[in-house]
Design a protein that fits this description.
The protein is of the alpha/beta class. It is built from 15 helices and five strands.
């Protein structure tokens, strides 16, 4: 069989003409890589800001205290005692603390975010080295008793997979639930099922609620399976209740369901649904503290992180799985934010269903 460059050229021209008529694809080809590279570039820059550091001044170490106070990326909170620092770290209000005692310097860390813990430890060590050099220059010497003691309030034995595992659990469920829901609604439209529902006594709220309840059974199975893999295969600790972790994932999955229903109105085929992945899923990977802490997200785009459901799901799952938090500990703001996200897009999906089919 002979091959003709002219015939291949005809096929190429046909593809180009199809792409020219699909403005969504052209936009994704041109602009999506630019946006994603900017996001990844900033996230991987290694810069952090907004790290909340507790400081207990027990006397001495003026050079180290001055060094920590001078770091612009640290928000220093002055505390009265070591027990206050431990309590605030346990409650998630502090990223770490430095207790400056006359005999030693204690660095209290939360290893549920290894990057932040590393940044705090490095800052204290750099400050201590700077203080030691200043004392030696002045003809004095820092005694052996003033050693730096690192103490983990949470997760002294955690590894990188342990810290990202809970967030990945949320990401996997969110990703597949969103894609499956959006594709399912596209099929319902193409097969005419939605039109049949519209002429039935069912209200639009009942229709969307029915789809959410139906998909929730699959989301529950998917969540339980993924949680088992994360804990059993990869040995990510589960110090809290498995039911609490599943409740977080189910609420996140419900938000992904209505989000998929909403965005299905802007697609005419399953291929176009897949095109939403760079716009919906990838930014959440970068901005929601899954691989990098929120403190490494540039301040000018950090507000967007707090508009995304995975930010709250990742924080809640880490609290439950790594710290043993209960429902009351993550009710505000995590579960509240996930509930608000669900309600907003439930209403939006219902309204869009009316415009599209009604």
């Amino acid at each position: 069989m002979s091959h003709s460059p002219e015939r291949a050229g005809v096929v190429a021209l046909r593809v180009i003409r199809q792409l020219k008529r699909d403005r969504r694809t052209i936009g994704l080809i041109v602009f999506a890589p630019i946006v994603l590279m900017i996001l990844f570039g900033y996230a991987l820059s290694g810069d952090m800001s907004g790290v909340t550091l507790g400081l207990v001044d027990g006397g001495g170490h003026a050079g180290l205290r001055s060094h920590l106070e001078s770091i612009q990326d640290f928000d220093v909170l002055y505390l009265g005692s070591e027990s206050d620092a431990e309590r605030l770290i346990s409650e998630g209000q502090l990223d770490g603390a430095a207790v400056l005692g006359p005999d030693e310097v204690q660095v209290l860390l939360d290893a549920s975010s290894l990057q932040i813990a590393g940044a705090i430890a490095a800052a204290v060590q750099a400050g201590a080295a700077k203080e030691r050099a200043g004392l030696e220059t002045a003809g004095r010497q820092l005694g052996e008793e003033s050693a730096i003691v690192m103490r983990y309030i949470f997760g002294y034995d955690l590894e990188m997979m342990d810290t990202v595992g809970p967030a990945i659990l949320g990401l996997v469920v969110f990703f597949f639930t969103f894609i499956n829901a959006a594709i399912a609604f596209i099929r319902e439209r193409s097969q005419g099922t939605l039109e049949k529902f519209m002429v039935s006594p069912l209200s639009r709220v009942e229709m969307v609620s029915g789809y959410v309840l139906g998909f929730s059974l699959f989301t529950l199975l998917q969540s339980a399976t993924t949680l088992f893999v994360v804990t059993a295969l990869f040995k990510v600790p589960l110090r809290g209740s498995a039911l609490t972790a599943l409740a977080v994932v189910l609420l996140l999955g419900a938000g992904a369901l209505v989000l998929g229903c909403f965005f299905s109105n802007f697609a005419r085929s399953e291929f176009q649904v897949v095109q939403f992945i760079p716009l919906i899923i990838t930014p959440q990977i970068v901005l929601c503290g899954i691989w990098w802490p929120l403190q490494s997200v540039p301040e000018f785009i950090r507000p967007f992180s707090y508009m995304l459901p995975l930010t709250y799901a990742a924080h809640a799952l880490r609290a439950v799985m790594l710290k043993g938090a209960g429902i009351g500990d993550i009710l505000y703001p995590d579960l509240l934010a996930l509930g608000i996200f669900f309600l907003i897009f439930f209403a939006a999906a219902t309204l869009m269903l009316r415009r599209e089919v009604g």
